[in-house]
Automatic annotation (TrEMBL), chain A:
Belongs to the MON1/SAND family. Residues 189-307 form the FUZ/MON1/HPS1 first Longin domain. Keywords: Autophagy, Endosome, Membrane, Protein transport, Transport, Vacuole. GO terms for biological process: autophagy; protein targeting to vacuole; vesicle-mediated transport. It comes from Arxiozyma heterogenica. It is a peripheral membrane protein. Residues 497-664 form the FUZ/MON1/HPS1 third Longin domain. It is found in: Endosome, Multivesicular body membrane; Prevacuolar compartment membrane; Vacuole membrane. This is Vacuolar fusion protein MON1. Residues 364-464 form the FUZ/MON1/HPS1 second Longin domain. Required for multiple vacuole delivery pathways including the cytoplasm to vacuole transport (Cvt), autophagy, pexophagy and endocytosis. GO terms for cellular component: fungal-type vacuole membrane; Mon1-Ccz1 complex; multivesicular body membrane.
UniProtKB/TrEMBL annotation, chain B:
This is CCZ1/INTU/HSP4 first Longin domain-containing protein. GO terms for biological process: vesicle-mediated transport. Residues 37-178 form the CCZ1/INTU/HSP4 first Longin domain. InterPro entries: CCZ1/INTU/HSP4_longin_1. The lineage of its organism: Eukaryota, Fungi, Dikarya, Ascomycota, Saccharomycotina. It comes from the Eukaryota. It holds the Pfam family Intu_longin_1.
């Protein structure tokens, strides 16, 4: 047990690794910080024989007390002896250093807040030091996680030195709300699908005056190299401006992506193929061939249904303006469920299948999934012995489900033919999609190769649902309106980590904690203004999908902005260890730390306050990211703002790894229900 | 033993070549692929509207490399059209600023098209091909348990090297002839003149790379950035700085005349500000271009001390281009001689006997068909190049004659050689070898430099006044009016277009002077007639000698063991300043280019048969063996003399990396640096640091901020954890690299 005491209160923390007790005595001013503001966080930086602490000192405390936020302090045990016996650590603030107070603006905001740093004495022995570190780790974990992310950022307290705010250090990307852009050139990313006769089929951002001649140019360029040099054009890269163009020339269809978002060519090529796969999934390659064989100048754009265009739009937005790591990870997101319960789900499914052989004979059901949440996390898989579907095909299916979840059409049962290009590009499979819980957004997907198997699958699905509902634990996860799914970053002993993605290469699945984010109120205001500026001229180009999306985004703009930020960070991390062609820099394993630091300008990071929108002009950024790739796993993580100690990050990364390995069966679907 | 060879795919088709290829696959050998240069196009689309010559006026240069067929004018125009099409499409979709000097890379299945857009008007396009005709450099590593990568594409010379050299070729043109635009503003005559100059400059530049792709890598990673130039790192405790001395500094130096003058003040006061020369001599640029053999510290060309030492003004704007030009010449030809500076030295394929041909055929660096007449197979298709073609024919005939005469001489003296061998054999066995040496004097020799370098350094150009004999240093003018009267004007004066601040880009006369490894470039005004005065030049030679001798005393003698590579650093670094006012690069990272990969001919061929010769043209069209020219700033030849041909030009642990690992590391670094290009962070406000730990035991740190790019490579296992309290106000990833790196960085800053 470790006792942490101060003059006002005592907190007790469990410590599994030490039987000693220690007391950290806080001076009253410091204590008042932790009481007054839940956003106080303490950073443990323990490396190379030193222990450094960065302590958040909220502005009001700094202003009202004599504590200098920029002062450098030493966290010194009174003596080595007293440390080892009493485990007392006293934090004292050196008033003499208060001259280094940060600049204050007239409105009371602080321009710059430097970390308060502490250093332990070198005389502490290594063992003592280790246990000391553990104590502090626990303390800091508890301190950090003891608050709930506030919706209004830091409130009146102002930003902390270590903050779970995630500033945007990247060039702003347009969101759906920015559809008022007049010119194509102003979009950071665009998707073009044209036929090989040069007819436009689909464009994400349209400009009718330009799209037809542009389609002609794209077609000419692709055909020129094909005819004259018997070669396919793959990419065009403007290195000075970072503009990238990626081409995919499949039979009768040319897809081009333009991007300025910094993705590697491999990712963009995968995205091209993803769009092509969607076309195949709706038409099959056979019918596509038939359509164009008869008439090479066939206008596929008019042939596609409105829903197809909307689905394509949805995919494009997912690939450009959303957090969708599935493509660059080439994996599916798994929903963590207790191993016992997951096994029970699989067992119940198999039992139901076995008992209903008369309704659903062998061969009727090909594949099945239980998905939870808007981001279609896999909870269970039903699959035949010796068969697996390609990740790429499953991603297509999940995109479809995701789309219907967004459209709120999930109160109905759906029977959708879908072609899986990698599985069999010339035929359809039929998917029965049933919503299990509207609030939970849990979905059951059953696949069959038989066109008329709807009623069989429906009956089976109903019975399965009834069966699963009988078990309270299972029901709580997949049917309940308030499910206990996913995990929070707080559940893992990984101090100072804001978010992470862990991919199990073996299972082609990844997990990540649920998103806990703070609204950038300023962003909301900015984007609302942007939305109001929409011209009528551009409104007409918006399909229903986009309008729906805008509606969705008005509700969820904060989440979306946060997701886009995460996407950019993870993209940077991923790119830092992969070359343009997607190959890893090293064949075996690689660890890469990235530290972003600097001062954000007003328009990048504006920590707003609902009551007072006066933002701080300059704000320090210290964010560290880490990538750890081995043949067995990939770990991407982002620290909180204010962290600059590699040792602390790598220590947390190891903790995450240990935690993931320990709970592997809970986190990932190993086999599924195999029949 | 490591054997590394170069095979071309055309050779692979032959039985012998195929055998080599199969063997290398079985032996898990490493292939290094070289992009094949396909064609070079320079055009001006603004001339498209003129119909007078079938829109060909837009085509300034069209050159196809190698044995390719002559394509029709329609094909040429279609290629121009597609380059423009790609550009205009991107302008329609993306914000590609037209006014900006930009570059684009179009990647096809089997080809890469590199295009740079210069002067807001001209396109310069180079096409690389990896089709059937690609070259394969095979590096075997029989001794090591190296597993070759399955991904062969990772073993190509990164295209970034070609792109940077495309920029360099353009910038070198500017340096020597001025902007393209200055030729295209008036009439068609000047356009033709531009075409002729492009033929003279661009084609030899790229032909050398076509024949010897290793040129791209010889400079190392610093060749990736054409905007910056390498600076030598010396402890200069005086007014001369690499950013240039100010006028106040000049005055201070002059006033400081009482005591022992520093080396730079000697040059400044006695040469630049001398009554006779002021203000005719505008600046003097000083470079250290050491060679292995001539280095004081045997066995190491130190990357750290290589390059620009300093100059006496701070307003020379194209100092980067000027420096890069010299480095390019030095690394390409292994020497800075008067022939190299005048642009008369180039590679050409060597005529060899049939037996020799079969010996080195498997190991050629290029797969170009060896032409019987020694022509370099340049296939220039341009209407305005008639004269050049005629010249080239003449040259090829002359070189053929020269080669025949060489062969004839060889045949004539063959009996004498046999006799000599026999007598020497007898002499050795009977221990009367001394008497044989008398006979040896009668044996005619032509490549005698190795035997008696002093004599052979005696160039017939008359510029070198003093030759190194024993410890006597060599110095003298390389380019100056002291040159032989019969030599062309280019041997007397090198005209360069330099831009000083507050002045337009104007031509200056430049002289080149050397003292051992130190090269001085003396920039004079065009109207400064004094340089034609022999006595003035002789006096200047003495004064420069005095200054550089003082430099040796002050600087070179004070180098520490670490500086000279006697103590290996545990890390290598590169710091690139990228602000407008300071575009310099300091590095200790050696070129990750193993001579063994490219000079494998020597290792494979006991007779040291090379398919390439350095020749100089323009004087008498005679092919002269490179070794007979005298070695002013030897580079390649010295390296060849090293064991295994390995480049020892480094002062860090990286020299102990095997060729494979070094190559792999280079490609990884290029990839890493490329990912910084992809980064979309707000450049003006956010700095980025990366610390990459690779599984090969290396740790790579890169920091990018608006001012500079810093890279440190360190041995993972060499990192000693910092003990004691780490200074908390310095928490960066750099600290993780250990105390030695932190100390270096603090010192460096």
């Amino acid at each position: 047990m470790v006792n942490i005491s101060n003059s006002d209160e005592h907190k007790t923390f469990n410590n599994n690794t030490t039987n000693k007790s220690g007391t950290i005595r806080f001076i009253p001013g410091f204590n008042s910080i932790s009481k007054a503001t839940p956003t106080v966080s303490i950073a443990l930086n323990n490396s190379r024989g030193t222990t450094d602490l960065s302590i958040t000192a909220p502005s009001d405390i700094i202003n009202n007390n004599s504590i200098s936020s920029t002062s450098s302090h030493r966290l010194l045990p009174e003596s080595t002896k007293s440390y080892s016996s009493l485990r007392d650590i006293e934090i004292s603030f050196d008033e003499s250093l208060s001259s280094r107070v940060p600049n204050k603006t007239s409105n009371g905001n602080i321009n710059e807040v430097a970390p308060i740093e502490f250093t332990t004495s070198n005389s502490i022995s290594q063992n003592e030091h280790n246990s000391y570190q553990e104590i502090l780790t626990d303390l800091l974990s508890e301190s950090f996680y003891s608050y709930t992310p506030s919706v209004c950022g830091m409130g009146r307290c102002g930003p902390s030195v270590v903050s779970n705010e995630l500033p945007n250090i990247f060039n702003k990307s347009e969101t759906l709300l920015s559809v008022n852009k007049q010119r194509l050139t102003r979009f950071n990313k665009n998707f073009f699908i044209i036929s090989d006769a040069g007819k436009p089929i689909f464009t994400m951002h349209r400009d009718d005056k330009k799209i037809i001649p542009l389609a002609g140019i794209i077609n000419t360029i692709v055909n020129y190299f094909q005819v004259n040099q018997q070669a396919e054009i793959k990419t065009i890269h403007f290195r000075n401006t970072g503009q990238k163009f990626v081409f995919l020339n499949k039979e009768h269809i040319i897809i081009m992506i333009h991007s300025n978002l910094g993705e590697s060519f491999k990712i963009l090529q995968d995205q091209c193929y993803f769009l092509y796969s969607y076309l195949i999934s709706t038409l099959t390659s056979k019918s596509l061939e038939r359509l164009f064989r008869n008439r090479s100048n066939f206008d596929l754009g008019t042939f596609l249904a409105q829903s197809d265009i909307e689905n394509l739009n949805s995919i494009c937005h997912l690939l450009s303006n959303n957090f969708y790591p599935d493509i660059f990870l080439n994996a599916l997101q798994s929903n963590p469920i207790e191993k016992r319960i997951r096994n029970k789900i699989h067992k119940e499914i198999l039992q139901e299948l076995h008992e209903n052989r008369d309704i659903i004979p062998r061969g009727t059901l090909l594949y099945g999934f239980l998905l939870i949440g808007e981001d279609t996390k896999m909870a269970a898989v039903i699959r035949p012995q010796g068969h697996t579907l390609y990740t790429h095909d499953i991603q297509l299916l999940f995109c479809l489900v995701r789309r219907h979840l967004h459209l709120n059409t999930m109160d109905r049962e759906l029977w959708i033919p879908i072609c899986f290009p990698k599985f069999n590009s010339s035929g359809f499979l039929y998917s029965y999609i049933k919503t299990l819980s509207l609030k939970n957004k849990s979905v059951m997907v059953l696949l069959s190769a038989q066109k008329d198997a709807f009623f069989k699958l429906k009956l089976f699905g109903d019975r399965l649902l009834t069966r699963l509902g009988k078990d309270s634990h299972i029901a709580k996860i997949i049917i309940s309106d308030n499910p206990c799914t996913g995990f929070s970053i707080k559940d893992i002993p990984a101090p100072l980590i804001h978010h992470f993605i862990f991919k199990s290469t073996k299972n082609a699945q990844y997990i990540m904690p649920i998103m806990e984010y703070n609204i950038k109120y300023q962003d909301v205001i900015e984007n609302t203004v942007s939305c109001n500026d929409e011209s009528e001229n551009n409104q007409k180009y918006l399909g229903n999908q986009q309008k729906d999306d805008i509606h969705f985004m008005e509700d969820g703009i904060d989440l979306l902005n946060y997701q886009i930020k995460l996407q950019r960070y993870y993209m940077e991390l991923h790119n830092s260890v992969t070359s343009e062609d997607g190959s890893k820099l090293q064949s075996r394993s690689v660890i890469n730390f990235i530290q972003w630091d600097g001062i954000t300008s007003k328009n990048i990071s504006s920590y707003g306050d609902i009551d007072n929108l006066q933002s701080v002009n300059n704000r320090r950024i210290h964010i560290m990211g880490m990538v750890w790739c081995t043949p067995h796993f990939e770990l991407y993580l982002i620290s909180n703002n204010g962290v600059s100690d590699k040792g602390a990050i790598s220590s947390s990364a190891k903790n995450i790894l240990r935690w993931c390995q320990k709970h592997e069966q809970r986190l990932f679907i190993q086999n599924g229900a195999i029949f | 033993m490591e054997t590394i060879g170069i095979v071309s795919s055309s050779i692979l088709k032959s039985s012998e070549g195929a055998l080599v290829c199969e063997q290398t696959i079985v032996n898990k050998s490493r292939y290094i692929l070289v992009w094949m240069l396909k064609y070079l196009i320079i055009f001006d689309p603004s001339k498209n509207g003129e119909l007078d010559s079938e829109a060909r006026s837009s085509l300034l240069l069209y050159h196809e490399f190698g044995d390719q067929y002559n394509c029709s004018i329609n094909e040429k125009l279609s290629r121009i059209g597609i380059i423009q099409g790609v550009w205009s499409m991107s302008q329609e979709i993306a914000d590609v600023e037209e006014g900006l000097d930009n570059e684009n890379i179009t990647e096809l299945d089997n080809e890469i098209i590199l295009t740079i857009f210069v002067e807001s008007r001209f396109f310069v396009t180079l096409t690389l091909s990896n089709s059937d005709t690609e070259n394969v450099i095979t590096a075997r590593n029989n001794g090591n348990n190296y597993e070759s990568s399955t991904n062969i594409s990772t073993n190509k010379i990164p295209y970034q090297f070609y792109l940077s050299h495309l920029w360099l070729s353009y910038r070198f043109f500017l340096l020597q002839y001025g902007t393209f635009q200055s030729f295209c503003n008036t009439d068609t005559h000047t356009t033709k003149q531009l075409t002729n100059l492009l033929n003279e400059h661009m084609i030899p530049f790229w032909n050398d790379i076509y024949l010897k792709p290793s040129i791209l890598l010889r400079r190392g990673l610093d060749a990736l950035w054409y905007e910056v130039f390498k600076c030598a790192e010396f402890n200069l405790n005086n007014s001369l700085k690499q950013s240039g001395a100010t006028d106040n500094n000049k005055k201070d130096n002059i006033d400081n005349g009482g005591s022992v003058q520093s080396w730079d003040s000697i040059i400044l006061r006695d040469v630049i500000l001398n009554e006779e020369s002021f203000p005719g001599i505008v600046d003097i640029l000083i470079y250290n271009l050491p060679s292995n053999k001539q280095s004081k510290f045997k066995g190491s060309i130190l990357k750290k001390q290589y390059g620009f030492i300093g100059n006496f003004t701070n307003d020379l704007e194209n100092l980067n281009d000027l420096s890069n030009w010299l480095y390019h010449l030095h690394t390409s030809y292994g020497t800075i001689s008067n022939h190299v500076i005048t642009g008369n030295m180039h590679y050409k394929e060597r005529i060899i006997d049939m037996e020799e041909n079969s010996m080195y055929n498997n190991a050629r660096e290029q797969n170009t068909t060896i032409s019987n007449n020694g022509n370099t197979n340049s296939n220039t298709d341009n209407e305005y190049t008639t004269n050049s073609l005629e010249n080239s024919k003449l040259k090829s005939v002359m070189s053929t004659l020269s080669s025949y005469s060489n062969r004839f001489l060889h045949n004539v003296t063959l009996p004498m050689s046999f006799a000599y061998d026999a007598i020497r054999e007898i002499g050795v066995t009977t221990e009367i070898s001394n008497s044989v040496s008398l006979f040896k004097d009668y044996i005619p020799r032509w490549s005698t430099e190795a035997d008696n370098p002093d004599k052979n350094n005696c160039m017939d150009t008359g510029n070198i006044s003093y030759l190194e004999r024993g410890n006597i240093p060599r110095h003298g003018f390389l380019i100056s009016p002291l040159a032989n009267k019969n030599l062309p004007i280019s041997y007397k004066i090198k005209k360069l277009h330099l831009k000083f601040k507050s002045q337009d880009n104007i031509r200056y006369n430049t002289l080149f002077w050397f003292y051992n490894d130190i090269l001085l470039l003396i920039v004079c005004k065009e109207n400064f007639e004094k340089i034609w005065d022999t006595s003035f030049l002789t006096e200047m030679d003495k004064l420069l000698t005095k200054g550089i001798v003082q430099f040796h005393e002050e600087v070179l003698k004070n180098l520490t063991l670490c500086d000279i590579g006697q103590i290996d650093r545990r890390f290598a670094y590169m710091v690139m300043e990228k602000t407008d006012s300071n575009q310099t690069l300091k590095t200790s990272i050696p070129p990750f280019f193993a001579e063994t990969l490219f000079n494998s001919l020597d290792s494979r061929n006991k007779d040291n048969v090379s398919p390439l010769d350095l020749v100089f043209t323009g004087m008498d069209n005679c092919s002269i063996n490179f070794k007979s020219m005298g070695k002013i700033f030897g580079f390649i030849s010295c390296l060849e003399e090293n064991e295994g041909g390995k480049d020892y030009s480094c002062d860090s642990f990286l020299k102990s990396l095997s060729d494979d690992k070094a190559w792999e590391l280079q490609n990884n670094i290029v990839d890493l640096l490329e990912t910084f290009k992809n980064s979309k962070k707000q450049l003006d406000s956010v700095n980025e640091e990366r610390l990459l730990m690779l599984d090969n035991g290396l740790i790579c740190y890169i920091r990018s901020d608006p001012q500079r790019l810093v890279m440190v490579i360190k041995n993972w296992y060499g990192i000693q954890k910092n003990k004691g309290v780490l200074k908390l106000n310095r928490k960066t990833l750099l600290d993780s690299l250990g105390k030695d790196v932190v100390d270096w960085w603090e010192q460096f800053q």
